[in-house]
Amino acid sequence: MSTFKFNFLDNTDNEETEDKREEINWFECEEIIPDKQINDLDNIVVHAKMFVCEDIEIGHVSSCDKLFSSGDYELNALELADKEHSDLIAGKYEGGLKVWECTSDILKYLLENTDINFKGAKVLDLGCGVGILGIYALQNDSIVTFQDYNKEIIECVTIPSVLLNIENEQREEVIKKCKFYSGDWASFDKKLPDTAVYDIILTSETIYNEKNYEKLTNIFLNRLSKDGSAYVAAKTCYFGVGGGMRQFETHIQKTSLINSEVAWKSTGGIQREILKIKRI
């Protein structure tokens, strides 16, 4: 598969692009049951990589080459992204094949803040991609919901990556602690039962598009438990698209039901931060 790049600069602020943004038909949410992946893992996983952060090692799927010609899975979004050599095609593909830089930031933060208790916690990995954050939570005895925009990502990348990190004889049992959803955040929020709330919500590099801020904020409003916390890891500014931490903070301040604080900032290079969000 070709090397991807984050094609943010395709989303310029000209009138034509704004019109195209308004016309996006976001994918509806689907719950995906992992039965097929449990039985077909060898055919799905062609190439795997090891994600390493401090003492954490998590294996994950790194390519879907074999699936492109197999005909067993629908890969429309992934094929389009590969053809366009892009990590972002708004409304079509939202970068789920790449492990973004801020994933390491949030994992280091979780390791350093041992008061964050994962044991028995209900955790949501929002915009999960390959599922690194959710896999970490699962390894620490959490009950985990994985969500990403593209169905193909969940089927061919997320679920196989989760299974790679479970011993063969335990897969069918451990995977019962997981749920998997694809689709737009607004549709996802509606799809979940009213009783679905989370003690910990983790999300990395998901605030680049200001048009999605209301959907994301609504998930925090509707799905954080009373004493739960959400952790948003992102670059301070996403050049070329208008999104970033200050814009997202401003949006959060419009509601009186949740508040936020900057829990961590990088000290060099491209500025990155972690925002902690709680109910009031």
From TrEMBL:
Its EC number is 2.1.1.85. GO terms for biological process: methylation. Keywords: Cytoplasm, Methyltransferase, Nucleus, S-adenosyl-L-methionine, Transferase. Its main location: cytoplasm. Pfam families: Methyltransf_16. GO terms for molecular function: protein-L-histidine N-tele-methyltransferase activity. Signal peptide: none annotated. CDD domains: AdoMet_MTases (cd02440). Gene3D superfamilies: Vaccinia Virus protein VP39 (3.40.50.150). It is found in: Cytoplasm; Nucleus. It comes from the Eukaryota. One of its GO terms (cellular component) is nucleus. Belongs to the methyltransferase superfamily. METTL18 family. This is protein-histidine N-methyltransferase. It comes from Papilio xuthus.
